Amino acid sequence: MHFVAAKGILSAKNGMNLYRGCSHGCIYCDSRSKCYHLEHDFADIEVKSNALELLENSLKRKRSKCMLATGSMTDPYIPLENELGNVREALSLAYQYGFGFTLITKSNRVLRDLDLLTGINERTKCVVQMTLTTYDEELCKKLEPNVSTTRERFEVLKRLRNAGIPTVVWLCPVLPFINDTEENITGILEYCIEAKVYGIICFGMGMTLREGSREYFYSQLDRLFPCMKEKYIQEYGTRYVLTSPDSKILMQLFHQVCEKNGIVHDNKKIFEYLNAFEEKQGNAQLSLYSMLNATPPGTALPTGGK
What is the mean pLDDT of the chain? Predict the structure, then answer.
């Protein structure tokens, strides 16, 4: 961990990254790519020391309310968040100033902040996005070694559903010759159906690789799946987009199951939903003090957290 002073915190589309780098160890992580100019070891987390001050100043100055977002580059619930609590503070500021919030995570640590997520969702809209890639638990532990397993994330989705918080699942990446099977896609979709997710984002059955992420991915293939790297090189060379040979069949399955079960599966429609700010009536006067004290500080994480 190291600290830096940031010049700004919110992007033009109101996204933020409180941390840079990650310790979850997912073998396919695109954030390792050199194009993002991460000038330090990926596991050496960069913490923006003035992020919360910058965020509060930005929210005070905004002329209209909007949805805030985090998690596109670094999972907000890396283990360091337990120590620093910057994500919780950011959620608190969003609640205090009446902004909506959406975040992307693979961790059941998100349940620590269920009180704030619920409070925001009562006033406006709070959407939790969760990535699901691999139905098989043992395979999941190989591909995403230091984070909640898919089954644990499924339990989170159900808890959020019961709390009235809408959820969106990212079904990606699908690694050719590894988890690009009907069994895998069907298992993930069954989880989504039971958890009653709002929608599933899927850009196709495959993955992307570029300089930086490719080298790490291939080193992990050598370690976990002997001879698989050679198969990738032979099939795809140095392409950016690596499409599964079974993509057409799997995408047809994906769309059919979503359509049958009322799950939104149009990416454009889902992103429009995520970006749309809503002002709800009846709960606007909810006390920040009482809401924050609904869950005592230091509440234990659910069993199974990484």
Answer: 92
